[in-house]
Amino acid sequence: MSLTELFSPAEIGAVTGVPVKAVYKLIEQRLPAGFVIRRKQRPLLTRWGALCVVIDREMPREVPVAIRRQVYAQVRGATPQAIKCKHGIMHYVVDVKAAADKMDADLAKYRNAMKLIVEDPSIQAGAATFKGTRLLVHQIADLIAQGATEAELREDYPRLTREMIAAATTYAKSHPRRGRPRKPAWQRNEPLSTRAIARRRG
Length: 202
Hints:
45% of the residues lie in helices and 11% in strands. The chain has 202 residues and is mainly α. Helix 1 packs across helix 8 (162-174), helix 3 (47-58) crosses helix 5 (96-114) and helix 6 packs across helix 8.
């Protein structure tokens, strides 16, 4: 993984399985300076910040925040094989290399999934679609969330592959829709004509 590559909290949450809220909490409360780059007020994680998310998830819950910060402060530069920390009578050993290897493998799968998706202004107004089709990625992800099975999806959309179906869920998690859902056109437009009808009184 490139050392200059940056990741949004949603991307890292989708790749690692860590809830996005937990990623934001880690960013705000635990990560050392330099592990998060802010662009247009949006936090983006560096490689080391992303690795800390993985390590934080794998640590036992009882590990104090002070120990976590000690570990994160050492996860810069060449990835160490392991990090040892002591807190009172407790000793902690973190297998950093194993965490880094797993993260890199998961990110490779994520990149491969994203290669199946394009955002072309000339197709579906630039909304994410599967390459070579006009199928909307978020629409497929919504159907999956509603309980549609792979067999049902492939019957209704013959061009869908198993890899595309898996990529739809990953994309939806890493690229959540912004803002409120758009209203249907008939709700946004003024009626063409109106007519008042007097009620009959019995």
